[in-house]
Amino acid sequence: MKVLAIDPGYGRCGVAVVEKNNGGKEVLLYSACIETSTKTEFPDRLAAVANECVRLIRQYKPDCLAMEKLYFQTNQKTAMRVAEVRGALIGAASNAGIEVFEYTPGEVKAAAAGFGGADKRAVARMLHALVKIDKKIKHDDEYDAIAVAITHLARARQ
Predict the structure, then answer these.
(1) Domains, the chain, ranges and CATH?
(2) Which one of the listed residues 19, 26, 68, 107 is annotated catalytic?
(3) Lowest CB count within 10 Å: 47, 60, 121, 127, which one?
(4) 124 vs 157 pLDDT, higher one
(5) How is the beta sheet containing 12-19 ordered, strand by strand?
(6) pTM of this prediction?
(7) 68 assigned to active site
């Protein structure tokens, strides 16, 4: 099973493609942070994120898309924009015939680090134990996307 996992955002959107490896560590095939400029209008930023995810769907042909659910943020404008990004990504997956799964931040931390209140360092440490990662991860958003993939792969086994 191959999962395209996303930590949604429009300034920085973490993406990862992780493949299940029966009997060994899961394998990170790709991860990155899609970054857009604050000087760019929101519709163009949204299109950039969505287009990159469509490209990843075409290139890696994932079995499903998993993403983190939106949690309440104090900045309503930011929350609304992230919700719009999520909608565009769900639409892209649906257009490609790919099922979408969503997980709360607590579910992701529990699956990746064994504790729903784990901090980012604990999650990153555990991801290196669970996933074959052959590159330097530059942003937390990438780790977050990898953790979403691990969450889905763990749930899919049940």
Answers:
(1) 2-157 (3.30.420.10)
(2) 68
(3) 121
(4) 124
(5) 99-103, 64-68, 2-7, 12-19, 26-35, 131-132
(6) 0.92
(7) yes
